[in-house]
Design goal:
It is a single chain. The protein has a single domain, classed as Cytochrome P450 (Cytochrome p450), CATH 1.10.630. Helix content is 51%, strand content 8%. The protein contains 17 helices and 10 strands. α9 runs antiparallel to α13, α10 runs antiparallel to α11 and α13 runs parallel beside α17. It is globular and about 60 Å long.
């Protein structure tokens, strides 16, 4: 196995369409070494589906970023609330955080939120009229999950737009200073918000969240980090899920027509839409604490391992004809929400939000079409997530 001379995930063409690069890397070797940044550093990229599932559940792959970077020189300045979240920890720390987070997103809790989600979608689309142009991202896909997760946690209305903007900056793959600054804005703002709530007795969602953190054994800094993770992860990937799904349907008219004729098929189509164009391209950081082998590739201890759900979901060994959007496909094994103990606890909420958004568009504006050629669409320049900067549509 020969490592690529350059990081294939930093090619400008990658952001517009990563799938040719994913396919090439997987064909060469489903687990291979790639260069990362400067200084001769390398990581191991996992692009095969079976290999990704194995990596997601291997306890020798640590999520503890502090342990990996301890003693290593760094020019980064991330706020601890962003750099030391549940996603950056191993059991038992991870277990404590997840025990607090999971009850927020149970099937029953999400079922209770569905009327609220519907009201938000109705409010956001109430001014839409056939024949007019909208940006689905700015007008629906961003504000819907931001509003829902903010309501779930009790974030005041006045704070939501700023937190969404800072969260957007947090995923910028081109400007590390911008990312670091956004992390401090989020961390400082949430620290002040939670401190004020703790100092003021009340019975709202924010006070309930703090009580859950206290009962779960989370200290002040851990409560802030969990709030930051829920806010950022609770809307960023859902925004991309909605945008990617609508674009995929518009690019596959037969699938779009089928759902338009029978919107009750939307819940069953969500897994295939997630598989076809995953809102999570590359999973968050892992490193191996011991020598190990994945898919026949030996990985020496102490190296970053990047699992790529976007590539694994297009592995023909798991999903025949993976580039085709097939609503009859059993796509339940997709890895867009991860796998194992770090699987996204907010998956039920993301599905409910996407389902409501898609149903509304299909039933009220069944003739909707792209307002621009597909090749002119702009994609966010981030490799962790995959999503559109804008999705101009003509309503009909």
């Amino acid at each position: 196995m020969t490592a690529p001379r350059q990081d294939p995930l930093r090619d400008p063409r990658f952001f517009a369409d990563p799938y040719p690069a994913y396919d090439r890397l997987r064909r060469e070797c489903p687990v291979q070494r790639i260069p990362t940044g400067s200084g001769g550093h390398h990581a191991y990229l996992v692009t095969g589906h079976a290999e990704a599932r194995q990596a997601f559940t291997d306890p020798r792959l640590s999520k503890d970023t502090a342990r990996f970077f301890a003693g290593r020189p760094s020019d980064r300045d991330l706020h601890p609330a962003v750099s030391r979240t549940m996603l950056s920890s191993d059991p038992p720390v991870h277990t404590r955080h997840r025990r607090v987070a999971t009850p927020l997103f149970t099937t029953g809790r999400v079922r209770g939120l569905r009327p609220f989600i519907t009201r938000i979608v109705d409010g956001l689309t109430s001014a839409w009229r056939p024949g007019t142009e909208i940006d689905l991202v700015a007008d629906l896909a961003v504000p819907l999950p931001v509003t829902v997760v903010s309501e779930l946690l009790g974030v005041p209305d006045a704070d939501r737009a700023r937190l969404a903007e800072w969260s957007h900056d947090l995923f910028d793959a081109t400007d590390t200073a911008r990312v670091d600054a956004a992390s401090h804005r989020i961390g400082d703002h949430l620290t002040a918000l939670l401190d004020r709530a703790r100092a003021t007795p009340g019975a709202g969602p924010l006070h309930s969240f703090l009580r859950d953190c206290d009962e779960g054994g989370l200290d002040r800094e851990e409560a802030v980090s969990l709030a930051a993770l829920l806010l950022v992860a609770g809307h960023e990937t859902t925004t991309h899920f909605i945008g990617n799904a609508v674009l995929a349907l518009l690019r596959h008219p037969e699938a779009f027509d089928r759902l338009r004729r029978d919107p009750d098929l939307v819940p069953g189509a969500l897994d295939e839409l997630l598989r076809h164009d995953s809102p999570v391209g590359v999973a968050t950081f892992r490193h191996n604490t011991q020598d190990l082998s994945i898919g026949g590739t030996a990985i020496p201890a102490g190296h970053p391992v990047l699992i790529v759900p976007g590539a694994a979901n297009r592995d023909p060994a798991a999903f025949p004809a993976p580039g085709r959007l097939d609503l009859d496909r059993d796509a339940g094994a997709h890895l867009s929400f991860g796998h194992g103990i770090h699987r996204c606890p907010g998956a039920p909420l993301a599905r409910a939000e996407a389902e409501t958004a898609l149903r509304t568009l299909l039933t009220r504006f069944p003739g909707t079409r792209l307002a621009v050629p597909p090749e002119s669409l702009t994609w966010r320049r981030t490799r962790l997530t995959r999503g559109l900067a804008a999705l101009p549509l003509v309503l009909a």
